Amino acid sequence: MADEMGLGKTLQCIALMWTLLRQSPDCKPEIDKAVVVCPSSLVKNWYHEVGKWLQGRIQPLAIDGGSKEAIDQKLAGFMQQRGLRVPSPILIISYETFRLHADVLHQGLVGLVICDEGHRLKNSENQTYQALSRLQTVRRVLISGTPIQNDLLEYFSLVHFVSAGILGTAQDFKKRFEIPILKGRDADASPANRERGEEKLKELISLVNRCLIRRTSDILSKYLPVKIEQVVCCRLTPLQSELYKRFLKQVKPAEELTSGRISVSSLSSITALKKLCNHPALIHDKCVEDADGFQGALSFFPPGYNTKSVEPQLSGKMLVLDYILAMTRSTSSDKVVLVSNYTQTLDLFEKLCRVRRYLFVRLDGTMSIKKRAKIVERFNSPTSPDFIFMLSSKAGGCGLNLIGANRLVMFDPDWNPANDEQAMARVWRDGQKRTCFIYRLLSTGTIEEKIFQRQTHKKALSSCVVDEEQDVERHFSSGELRELFTLTEDTASDTHDRFKCRRCVNGHQVRPPPAGTDCTSDLSQWHHCAEKRGLQDPVLAAAWDAAVTFTFHQRSHDEQRGIV
Questions:
Q1: CA separation, residue 500 to residues 1, 312, 492, 553 (Å)
Q2: Residue 233, SS3?
Q3: Nearest-CA neighbor of 17 among 30, 4, 2?
Q4: By three-state DSSP, how is residue 439 classified?
């Protein structure tokens, strides 16, 4: 079940369990037990959802803690249940607990197993996948709104779990589908490779459609307010630019890359450059230590500089964020969600909020599940004075409902487009009443634009395979990882340059996007702005002169007025 976020996958699965536990063509239950396996943070959520929709007709058994002996005892009791009316026919358990206690659950039959956030099973070699595969059941449902996160072999693992053998072995799949499809998707592919790739893609889709249901969120758009999504390129400050060039010159990380793959030694270079793009304060300690790549770099910082103050003017993205927050605060009653991959960046957001006297709350991996629910409820309340909700994308990307805010800033891109999609879906969802504004900030010409381009490549692959889109454009060749460690200084947007855009002349859009284009369309079909004229968001227009060089923007849909 690969429906996108917000389409009721949980409710559909609860309806399925209820039906199988109560009905069959033989006028008796089809199954006597069902198991729901999910991330530990969602065990309680599933328990409450079953109670909400079935209103006490079934008493589920939820296991989210306890000693090994106590858990084993509960699981053994669950497995021993038999008959037409089992007292607790639904077990809700986390992936980790399932793996640790799998031997108990393997001792009997289960009518149905449901795996939520099923992309956790993208590696068929891991212990959790193996433990679930050995569960004695003939009915398996895997739920994932993002079935392709990185590559086609992960997709194979998911399909193989629910319908073993439909795509052959992993080796068969790689040879028969993955290699020709990826060759055909490459920007430099020959006409023959493209044609063969398309044939194999159609063959794969026809096979997988036997066991896949996929509906996209565009069916929800008419029930939600308009969303304006904006990819904002921000120029580096002179300090960032000098530090960036010095690092590339000293470390030469591009020479570490072989055959288009990232080596282990390159990962620290990637992290250093990503942090530098966020703010020089995040690599100041490396400069103090004279660390590799930052030798002699301390002299570039302003005299008397210390990391206790935030100094937004030293980072292009932080300066743009400062303007966005100031304009939002002074011209509206909107609230803002700030998302970053790094807790150190959240620390900088805190310093900025204290200097500007903005009230805020913060959620990262150190916070308990129970406390998270409380601060989310408080922030969403119309009477809450909090202006900003800070979010670590790793800790809070999934499942949170932050409809109290209608502006969200993704401060840095993730390698995995699914992580960014999850984070951005926190505000534009059921219950939201206001127009939503999403800002995705990228440092112009840097590694961040390259990461964003890889995201685009992966999303195009997912669109082709999962959503069966035929006209997804090819922009980025697989060999472009070698360009990760370059700095393009003479550009307004490296991403736009690569499109070889036919709708823009000298960087200015002269032809609008095609009719019917929305936020899910290819980025080349969005609005392209090399100046603030033409933006739909006055807040971003006011922040333009701070450090913005280029913006891609698009609306989710047009408002339908006069509908009762």
A1: 37, 33, 14, 18
A2: strand
A3: 30
A4: strand
Local structure of 135: helix, strand or coil: coil
Which CATH number is associated with domain 9-164? 3.40.50.10810
Q: What is the pLDDT along the chain (564 residues), one digit of tens a residue?
A: 888 777 788 999 999 999 999 888 877 888 889 999 998 878 888 998 999 999 988 889 999 778 889 999 999 999 988 877 788 999 999 998 999 999 999 998 999 999 998 877 877 778 888 898 899 998 999 988 766 655 677 788 888 888 888 888 888 888 888 888 878 777 677 888 888 888 888 888 888 888 888 887 667 777 889 999 999 999 999 999 999 999 998 887 666 655 455 555 677 888 899 999 999 999 999 999 998 889 999 999 998 888 888 899 999 999 999 999 999 999 999 999 999 988 999 999 999 999 999 999 998 877 776 787 788 889 999 999 999 999 987 765 456 789 999 999 999 988 777 677 778 888 988 789 999 999 999 999 999 998 888 777 655 554 444 444 444 344 444 455 567 788 999 999 999 998 888 899 887 899 999 888 888 788 889 999 999 988 999 999 999 999 999 999 999 888 754 332
DSSP-derived secondary structure letter, 177: I
- CA–CA gap between residue 78 and residue 101 (Å, rounded): 13
CATH 3.40.50.10810: which residues of the chain? 9-164
Q: Where in the chain is the domain with CATH 3.40.50.300?
A: 221-555
Cα distance between residue 301 and residue 279, in whole Å = 12
The phi, psi pair for 518, rounded to 5°, reads: -140, -170
Across 23-111, the runs of DSSP E, i.e. the strands, are: 34-38, 61-63, 90-94
Q: What is the pTM of this model?
A: 0.74
Q: CATH number of 221-555: 3.40.50.2300, 2.40.110.10, 3.40.50.20, 3.40.50.300?
A: 3.40.50.300
Structure tokens at 326: 């100031």
DSSP 147: S
The label of the residue with tokens 């929709």 reads: 53
Identity at 128, one-letter amino acid code: T
**Residue 516, phi then psi, degrees to nearest 5:** 85, 0
